[in-house]
Amino acid sequence: MKNRIFPALAAGVLALTTLTACGGGQPPQSEEKGGDLLAAIQAKGEIVVAMEGTWAPWTYHDEAGELVGYDVEVAQAVAEELGVKVSFAESGWDSLLAGLESGRYDIIVNGVEIDEARQEKFDFSVPYAYNRTAVIVRGDNEEIQSMEDLEGKQTANTISSTYAAVAQKYGAEVTGVDDLNQTFELLTSGRIDATLNADVSYHDYMRAHPEADIKIACLDPDPTQVAIPMRKGEESAALREAIDKALTQLSEDGTLTELSTKYFGVDISQK
User: Fold this and answer.
1) What is residue 179's predicted lDDT score, i.e. its pLDDT?
2) What is the three-class DSSP state of 185?
3) Which domains does the chain have, with CATH numbers?
């Protein structure tokens, strides 16, 4: 789930190429680091939002090729609250945070969960969604029934994801992948024992692939907080405050609940 609000930079900063959600060419770029990011975004009239575009129902392409999903609509709603338009930049998960840190994007709206390592590098908005991590296995797998059963098992996730970190914490050996579809291909073909992901992503996959012989073996008892990361420091202070205000408004007026129900079938915007 995700939300809306973002700024641009002042004179002396390079204007960079913009990309629409479905366009080709190079991804849009944010302004150089320094100054007041919110003021820069609002002066430019556009906020550059990074996301994968391959992780349904958060951010993905529909049959017509349009970029859609919970995070897409949250980002659009936040941008509307900020009074700017949104320009989407799609990239693989492992390059999103690096691109944000380098100033290529203004924010990331991609189901990003807060953890201590990320908080050291980035500032985060208030949470706009809460995830339950599911351990997903093949239908005939009876060996894994708890988080502790991951010890010594083979799993797969994008390496920098919180899911990979959780799997490693419980003693699993993690294979790196590019996206969720590749993960499920490895699982259904028997090349891994399990994968960890949001329980809502599992249910969404099953709606699209009802024939898939996979199941949830167990759930991590601790829900994680999903928020919007931005570059750390004073340059993002006003932007963070504006995004927090926008997300709070979207929560209170029911927008987040409506979008969550639309894409997940349940309200994950509330803890």
Assistant:
1) 85
2) helix
3) 37-129+225-264 (3.40.190.10), 133-219 (3.40.190.10)
